[in-house]
What we know:
By secondary structure, this protein is α/β, with parallel strands linked by helices. Helices cover 49% and strands 13% of the residues. The protein has two domains: 3-68, lambda repressor-like DNA-binding domains (434 Repressor (Amino-terminal Domain)), CATH 1.10.260; 75-199, Rossmann fold (3-Layer(aba) Sandwich). It starts with a helix and ends in a 16-residue tail after the last helix.
Amino acid sequence: MNMLFAETLKRLRTQKGLSQREMAEKLYVTRPTVARWENGSRLPDVTMISRLSSCLDVDTGTLLSLAAESDESPNVIMVDDRKIILTGGLPVLEALMPNATVTGFTRPSEALEYARTNRISLAFLDVEMGKINGLELCRRLLEINPRTNVVYLTAYIDYAFDAWNTGASGFMLKPITPEGVLLQLKNLRYPFSSGGAATWNQ
């Protein structure tokens, strides 16, 4: 739960003299949606944060920063059926995201089981993985948590078109590089606080 964002949102709304219902009408959402934002059980997406910033006369970046604090230790997973890829990629992810819990899986079924009991903020998925490929795994992960950011990993650029039709945030060619991961972190659909990425190689 992100109580810092929730309490700030409630304070800003009150300062504007708006009720939850009045703000909901301005944003074209329901009052219960606003209530969930203010009790910390839900976070608005990037588009809605932009609307909120206009409605409350506050900088968009300020609200995005508050929303990013929702995950003190976000869960990041990497799924690839080749152990050598995990061995090389996991240290890169851990170095770039020191606040995150980074876990690797060689079996999509194990990744899904983990996702059912842990809120996944970001998933790096190999495209070709036997019975359950990365595209299908993405679909299932998003069914569990629609706010999971998914980045595909593959050695074949030909998969890019199909990948973009699955709700993923990005697409990377193997092998994983710090520069490639940093680029993906800047373009996540649902940003989160990962810590340390901006200082890589500085």
